[in-house]
Amino acid sequence: MDQWEYMTAFLRADASVHEEYLRRTMRMENPPKFAPQALIPELNQLGHQGWELMHIEPVVVGANQDVAVGTTEGTAVRPWTNTYFCVFKRKQEF
Fold first, then answer.
1. DSSP assignment string, 10-40
2. Gap between the Cα atoms of 47 and 32, Å rounded
3. Rounded Cα–Cα distance for residues 62 and 6 (Å)
4. How far is the C-alpha of 3 from the C-alpha of 94, rounded, in Å?
5. Whole-angstrom Cα distance, residue 24 to residue 6?
6. pTM for the whole thing?
7. Dihedral-angle region of residue 38 (phi above 0 means left; psi in -120 to 50 means alpha; beta otherwise)
8. Maximum Cα interatomic distance, the chain, rounded to a whole number of Å
9. CB 83 within 8 A of CB 59
10. How far is residue 78's CA from residue 62's CA, in Å, rounded to a whole number?
11. pLDDT tens digits for 12-60?
């Protein structure tokens, strides 16, 4: 039976960090500042380390690494975010 190890991470989409990648590979001439495609280089790097992305969800992260869920106080509108909560797994090596 396969054994798995898991990892969670908050990844931030920031086009300024990966602007060349977005222009060259994604053919985005003027990539939006927080384009989700800016996550791809980091996701690929983790994939090369054997990590498989199992879940990704946009989140608002608090000062204590807590995550806001649902609505903001007094409104039904969720705030904008460029941070994503990701869950990865890979086969455990013995």
1. EEE--TTTSHHHHHHTS--SS--TT-GGGGH
2. 25
3. 22
4. 9
5. 32
6. 0.85
7. alpha
8. 51
9. yes
10. 14
11. 999 999 999 999 999 999 999 999 999 999 999 999 999 999 999 999 8
